[in-house]
Specification:
By secondary structure, the chain is α+β, with helices and mostly antiparallel strands. The chain folds into two domains: about 90 residues, DNA Primase, Chain A, CATH 3.90.580; about 50 residues. Helices cover about 45% and strands about 15% of the residues. The chain has a four-stranded antiparallel β-sheet with strand order 2-3-4-5, covered by helices on one side. A three-stranded antiparallel β-sheet has the order 1-6-7. A hairpin with a 5-residue loop joins strand 3 and strand 4. The protein binds zinc ion (ZN). The site of zinc ion has 9 residues, from strand 3.
Length: about 150
């Protein structure tokens, strides 16, 4: 069991997942400070995840893990597990790679693409010639089905 720093989420994505909206063109971005309620006093480093409140409430830390611990009152291990950076017996405690889309949406796409593919297969079985457009669309369907199958495998 160990902590794997590389598995910590990208700082900007992480802060966005916390309901924040880091803004600014440079490496250091501005967002609200949840610790004292300031609307734009928190500076975050979009590369390292370092965070510091400029309003003087004392909130600061070196990375998203420290932020997660402070914001949710978690210990190191719980926070690392929460962020998918804790590995048990060689397996991540949480799926590291995000799914490309929610499961319900994936089922909708699969249902549509597989129906389309089934209709095309039925046509081929009946000796109907597919047009180039049909073939191009089938290729897209095949790719979508494969992408979803791999993501949820
Ligand atoms: Zn603050």
């Amino acid at each position: 069991m160990s902590f794997i720093r590389d598995r910590l989420p990208d700082p900007v994505s992480y802060f966005e997942s916390q309901g924040q909206n880091p803004k600014g063109p440079g490496k250091w971005k501005t967002m609200g400070c949840t610790f004292h309620g300031g609307s734009d006093s928190m500076r975050i480093n979009s590369t390292t995840g370092t965070w510091v409140c400029m309003a003087g409430c004392g909130a600061r830390g070196g990375d998203v893990l420290a932020y997660h611990m402070a914001a949710h009152g978690l210990d190191f291990m719980s926070a690392a597990k929460d962020l998918g950076a804790w590995v048990d017996d060689g397996k991540p405690s949480k799926q590291q790679r995000p799914k490309p889309l929610p499961a319900t949406e994936a089922i909708r796409v699969l249902a549509f693409e597989s129906t389309l593919t089934a209709i095309a297969a039925g046509n081929i079985a009946h000796g109907v010639q597919l047009t180039d457009k049909d073939r191009a669309r089938l290729y897209v369907a095949a790719q979508r089905i494969q992408t979803i199958s791999e993501a949820f495998a």
